[in-house]
Amino acid sequence: MRRLVRTLVCIGSLAAISPFVGAPHVQAETEAQVTSAACRVIAVPPVASTTSVRALAVRSGCSDKAAVRVQIKTSNPGPDKVVRRAAKAVTNGKVTTSARCTNRFQRFYVTAVDADGNVSRSKAARLKCGSSAKPLPTPPPTPPPSGDNDSSTGTTQENEVVRLTNQARKGSGCGALTHDPKLHTAALGHSKDMANKGYFAHNSQDGRDPGDRIKAAGFAPIRAWGENIALGQPTPAAVVKAWLDSPGHKANIMNCNFTHIGVGLFKGSKGPYWTQSFARH
Fold it and tell me: Closest by alpha carbon to 69, among 81, 60, 59, 80?
């Protein structure tokens, strides 16, 4: 029986180019079979800034475009109150909205539902606005792996992926990518998270997309970003070949707009998890 190897690709951009409202997803295997995760929506617990409470809902694993309705609600002794609602049609992506708040604590939560009937409610959060507002959650940085290094960034296998990627880019006239420590942190953190939590997707289970993870790792400013992920390929040569054989993944590798890369390899129970994080300042 032939071995099935899965890859997934995401392309997006930030800042002045365009806001990220849902990245195209291409999932392929080395055989002709194509699989996808179950369609679902996830309401992420709200967070507060100095002036507002912000809500996020993520739709993933879907093949059709549908309206996603998001509401910010307050928990009250009587009926809960809707303080803000928003709706947007997406296939796979995120829907955000925000509501003004005061400097007194209130309990907020987020609900999300799409036209296909997928429903999600977040945990409630006790929030207030002002200088003591709860900040956006950011994961602790992942330290660079120890041992098996042939440069200051990444392991031998990770650096071989960078070398093979740059070799492919050279043939298309693109400049070599720099293996950046912060992008390496973002890539390795995502590979570990997928392996430890048993999923295979660009959006983390807490609702963050690749751009969020790159920003949290400290790579700034971000003018453009992209991500390739893969599961099951045993060697750097195998995973780079799988990406190059897929048009969507190859487009990331051959994107001359990117200047930096991070490669993260983590060997989980289902096999090696690979992440390529691309970006440009």
Answer: 59
